[in-house]
Amino acid sequence: xxxxxxRVLSLEDELLDLLGPAAVSTEPRVRERASVDGSPMSPIIxxxxxxxxxxxxVFAANAEQIATAVAAAxxxxxxxxxxxxxxxxxxxxxxxxxGLVIDTTRARAIVEVGDGYITAEAGTPMVLLEQxxxxxGQALWMYPSTAQSTIGGFLSGGSGGTGSIAYGxxxxxxxxxxxxxxxxxSDEIHHVEGDEAQKYVHNYGTAGVIVRAxxxxxxxxxxxxxxxxxxxxxxxxxxxxxxxxxxxxxxxxSGDGPEIxxxxxxxxxxxxxxxxLRVILDxxxxxxxxxxxxxxxxxVEAVRExxxxxxxxxxxxxxxxxxxxxxxxxxxxxHLEVAGAPLAEDIDAVEAVFPGxxxxxxxxxxxxxxxxxxxxxxxxDVYRGIAELNAIGVGVHNPHQWNVDFNVEQTIxxxxxxxxxxxxxxxxxxxxYTGARKGAIIS
Length: 443
What we know:
The protein is an alpha+beta fold. It has helices spanning 3-19, 28-33, 43-46, 63-76, 126-135, 151-157, 164-167, 194-198, 233-244, 258-261, 286-295, 307-314, 319-328, 342-345, 347-352, 379-391, 408-418, and strands spanning 24-25, 56-59, 80-83, 100-103, 110-114, 117-121, 138-140, 175-181, 190-193, 209-219, 223-230, 252-256, 275-282, 299-305, 333-339, 358-363, 368-375, 395-397. The chain has an 8-stranded antiparallel sheet with strand order 14-11-13-12-16-17-15-18, sandwiched between helices.
């Protein structure tokens, strides 16, 4: 028996003793399910799968059990990868060196809802946080387009979403405090706030494991979901930034041309053959936005209220329209995350970089961002296109790689202390990474 197998067996025995048999599994199907995420969305990553397989899976019931499992794996020298719902698209949650995978989805207690903040365990779905906030007359600053993803997953691997027009990405003050555990053999839970807490955001759990988080809330407004349409994509593009720059900021402004719109779930508010525009906005702004849309040749298809309307629109933003579009096509489709004025001002040049390309667009305060989808030819062609997009002023983030791409140097320095043996999600923190970084997309 290899030394690695011996260490895993020893860890299994300890975890069974500490957490009980209901929390520990070596069942092949369980291990396989815990070793995949949304990365098949990338044909480049999909061609490399499987990238890793867990030897052991733990289902932690609370923050303390997450800490217990991390500490035990560290003492036995076994790699540990922590996951929420596995909704990331870049392979961040794949255990490339095997070892222990900790599934946090049972650790979903909402600890406290206070004035301007909410505290919850790492496995709590974002949609439950939003529901709890609404019940208290408040709302999250932001939540991702996959609203069922966990708070730990969103902070470790996500970036932004609904609410990012006003607040930017999730490293810009959204996090008030974190409780984290380090891979040093101790199950001590460290409480960090302010700048110290930001060191654990968007680094895929390579510098420490988030077990509990406190994030910001704002006073609840009368949100409305507004669906509109235009004869063509040019009409949608002409108003995206105008609406996004309104004060107060809308929570979301998303748009698609007729091709991607046709692939979205059937809704009378997304009429066939037209470009779709979707907005979450303050009820007081409905008349003003209607005037903007009609003035540009569009029409409002529906105005809906309530939290379900907002969640439905959120699930039609960012990567989600691309996923629907991929499913609707007979050929393989890839996408790039893109940003910059040319998305709205010179769409023909942007889409011409890849024959057959179509853009999904979003508004931020600074500039439009989006997802550029096109028929997949080859990995080399993708990188050729990235260089051409950069040359015409389009920022690109590459969703076809799994390296930490934010505050890389700081994360490496932090991990020297918090993960001295390199056991946390190994394979993701690359000191030689030279690709595009997170800030190229959401400001």
